[in-house]
Amino acid sequence: MLDQAAAPVTTDDAVRRLLRARIDDAYKLAMFILHDPAAAEDAVQEAALLAWDRRRTLRDSQSADGWFTRILVNVCRDELRRRARRPRFIALDPAAGAGSGPSADHADLAPALRRLTPDEQGLLALRFGRELTVPEIAEQLRVPEGTVKSRLHSTLQHLRAALDAERRSEEAIR
């Protein structure tokens, strides 16, 4: 007799529809984490392939969105870790400090975000990139809401410190 609990709830067609429906949102999330269009496309493609390979592990169609999001965030985290092991080259752009306003604020944010750990970047991507609530993040990451709140608090403190460090280093250059 076959165990009903071991049988997947979703079909290949359902997984295919899920992946197709999530492509745009997945790309936005990957862009928020990676800040690189080509890397974001690669991450979405890799996540879709992994999801397809792991489609038999999806037991509940209600959790399919969170399941795919976890796969994508993990792929992005792996990419951030690979980047951290590569040497970095800094290009000096004389026009970089010329602006002010929202675009200048956004320009300050990207280097500060890169100072965060991959886990912290992924958490911020879920909260502010995908605009998920704390309960939604807790459900997708399968952790208690209190854990999400404390991690968000800590991550935002780290982001503030990284922004301060970026501003101090910019002032030192001027």
What does this structure look like?
The protein has helices at residues 12-34, 37-53, 64-85, 102-114, 118-129, 134-141, 145-173. The chain has 174 residues and is mostly helical. It has 2 domains: 9-89, RNA polymerase sigma factor, region 2, helix turn helix motif (Rna Polymerase Sigma Factor, Chain: A, Orthogonal Bundle); 100-174, Winged helix-like DNA-binding domain superfamily/Winged helix DNA-binding domain (Arc Repressor Mutant, subunit A, Orthogonal Bundle). It is globular, with a radius of gyration of 19 Å.
Overall structural domain count: 2
Low-confidence stretches: 1-7, 88-105
- CATH T-level fold name of the largest domain: Rna Polymerase Sigma Factor, Chain: A
Mean pLDDT: 81
Structural class: mainly alpha
Q: CATH superfamily membership of the largest domain, which one?
A: RNA polymerase sigma factor, region 2, helix turn helix motif
Shape: globular
How do the helices and strands follow one another from N- to C-terminus? HHHHHHH
Largest sheet: none
The overall strand count is: 0
CATH class of the largest domain: Mainly Alpha
Q: Fraction of residues in helices?
A: over 70%
Q: What is Rg?
A: 19 Å
Strand content: under 5%
In whole angstroms, how far apart are the ends? 74 Å
Second CATH tier, the architecture of the largest domain: Orthogonal Bundle
Oligomer: single chain
Summarize this entry quickly.
The chain is an all-alpha fold. The chain folds into 2 domains: 9-89, Orthogonal Bundle (Rna Polymerase Sigma Factor, Chain: A); 100-174, Winged helix-like DNA-binding domain superfamily/Winged helix DNA-binding domain (Arc Repressor Mutant, subunit A, Orthogonal Bundle), CATH 1.10.10.
